Amino acid sequence: MVVFLGLFLFLLMAAVSVLGAVMDRDLLTQQLRDEGVALARAYALSAENALILNGAGLARVVGEAGQIPEITFLMIVDPTGRVVAHSDPTHFGEMVGDPAVKRALETPIGAVEAGRTPTVALKSPWGSQEVLEVIVPLVVLDQIRGVLDIGLGTDLIRQAAVNTTRSSFLIALAAFLLGVAFIVGFSRSLTRPLEGLAKAADQIRAGTWDMPIQSRAGGEVGKLAAAMERMRQEVSASFVRLAERTTEVDQLRAYAENILDSLQAGVISLDLDGTLGGMNLNAVRMLGLATAPAPGSLPLEVLAPWPDLAAGFQAVLSEGLSREVVLGSPVSGTKAPNRLVRLHATRLRDRAGVIIGELVVLDDITFLRSMETRMRDAEKMAAMGELSAGVAHEVRNPLNSIRNAAQFLGGKFEPNDARNRFTDLIIEEVDRLNALVSRLLQYTRSEKQGHEVHDLRQSVDQAMVLAALKVPSSRVPLVRRFAEDLPLVWADPRRIVQLMLNLLFNAYEAIPDRGTITVSVEPVDGRVRVSVDDTGVGMTAETLERLGEPFFTTRESGTGLGLAIARQIADEHQAVLTFQSAQGRGTIVALEFRFCHEEISHEESHHEILD
Fold this sequence. Notes:
Blueprint lengths: L1 H51 L5 H9 L4 E7 L5 E4 L12 H7 L3 H5 L5 E5 L7 E10 L2 E11 L1 H51 L13 H44 L3 E5 L5 E4 L1 H7 L11 H4 L4 H13 L3 E5 L11 E11 L5 E10 L1 H47 L7 H25 L7 E3 L1 H13 L9 E5 L6 E3 L1 H17 L7 E8 L2 E8 L6 H6 L15 H11 L3 E6 L5 E8 L7 H4 L6
Parallel strand pairs: 12-14
Antiparallel strand pairs: 1-2, 1-5, 3-4, 4-5, 6-7, 6-10, 8-9, 9-10, 11-13, 14-15, 15-17, 16-17
């Protein structure tokens, strides 16, 4: 804008300068014309006097004119057009063919006497520079005796015009520079406050509200700055209030999310269009997802890896009834324990009671069903205990009598008597029956527990020492893998030794010839894990399903109470007992105990495996 204004000013001043130069040239030309006419008339009078004397004195007239610098030439032409006198003698006697000279010779006497203006014109005679030519008829005794032609140089006019043009140009240039300086200064006085306002607007747009908008400019710019400052203050206050409200909303949202994540149940919210609105932390854990699905996802797509759960999910939404579903491993994924989950749906409403979505709650009732099963088992065990106690009392007395009688008979026979074999057999079978009754009583009776803060490595090592006495280490060596700095647990050392002996004896009996038993004790995910890994024959899936049932055994000489007692001891310690086995690949029995410094929750630490 400043450049355009400067260019316009420059062109304007240039036009004014050119116009002034033209006017000055015209004025100088007019002055030169007046001067030339006066000189021509003066010299014409002298020439007429000379012609009266038959031309005497014409040379003096043209000679005087030749001495004047302003006069370029002066010549006198007779009526025939011949030069009879000239300031430059070289032109003497030449014939003049100038039409203006001919017209002057043909001018009527009346016109001359009337004082008409002589002929004046700018010409370049004889190819010389431009001159102002004035032609005056010479009248003697009422007759035109010739013409006086005088030429005045225009150098002064040209020089004056050049000087005027130069001065005008300098004046125009100075005016242009002053105008540009004024325009620049004036524009800067306007743009500087506007630039400050633009910078303040950029800061506001960038979110910087604490910079006051100040301007020293007056007028409209000052009013605009004051208005923007008021706007900044209002927007800043609104922004502070909005930030406070946003913080409150974030806190409420975090509080609500903490409440949902603290629930033991899984919660899935759906929007009105049936898409996923959110999922609490426990629901994510139940499904074994790495992160919660993105809002707007389709729930059936999220639950696609669990077909039974997806079908139950759709059923509770459409029918409004609760469903119990076995939540197992996804269709394609790692093997995980099955969980029994109850699904039920409810409408999600706002404060006005308007339905805004639905909630589907997933309750893990695995422990509840396990407790029901345990209560039934406890009732059975109580009845079995009463029956076992009566049977043991009634059976042990005859067995003791039979054993005593057999020993008495054995004492009557000679050492080499063949009948001693039968009495020894009777004693062995009676002892076996007594051991069976003792184990049955041990399974059905609840013993007083002596829990204490204990290092499992001590009990496990003691059990391994006792077990090694039964089978030579050359056939089945025992390998210890005990971690250092093992956390302590809350346990009964005597019962842990009994539990480990049952597991080690089963591992020995699962190895028909030679093999290895590896016992590991290590911390895993907040628990102490004890595992017995053998290289025996392994078990079938059907056998794994029935492990731990009383009187179930795969050996002809077994009682079926060893693993049942082991599970009972594990339950006393709220430990998790699991089995992994495959035919021909051995078996891994694992026990997981909670650290003693953590609050032991039976509900969190024990889950049965559902089929």
